[in-house]
Amino acid sequence: MGSRNTRGSRREVEQNPDEPRSDPSVIEDADSDDNESDLVSVLAFLLRSGQARLVRATTEGGSGIHIIHGMSSSDSDDDEDFDGDFAYHDGKAASPPVDPNPNTLVVDQSVFKQDTLLSSGQLLGGQNICSRLHMRESSLYNRPNFTSGDKAAASANYIPNNKETKAQFLQKLFCGQYSSDGTVFLSACQDQNIRLYDTTLGQFKEFRNIVARDVGWSIIDTDLSPDQQYLIYSSWSDYIHLCNIYGDYETHAALCLNPDDSRFCAFSIKFSHDNKEILAGANDAAIYVYDRGSNQRTLRVHGHEDDVNTVAFADDSSHILFSGADDGLCKVWDRRQISETCPCPVGVLAGHSDGITHIDPRGDGRHLITNSKDQTIKLWDMRKFSAEEGICRYIYSGCSTGTVVIYDALTGKITSRLSGHRSAVRDVSWHPYQKEIVSTSWDGTLGLWRYKRPHDDDEDDKEEEEDSESKQQSMGPCRRSIRLRNLLHL
Question: Which residue stretches does the UniProt record annotate as biased composition, category Low complexity (predicted)?
Answer without folding.
Answer: 65-74
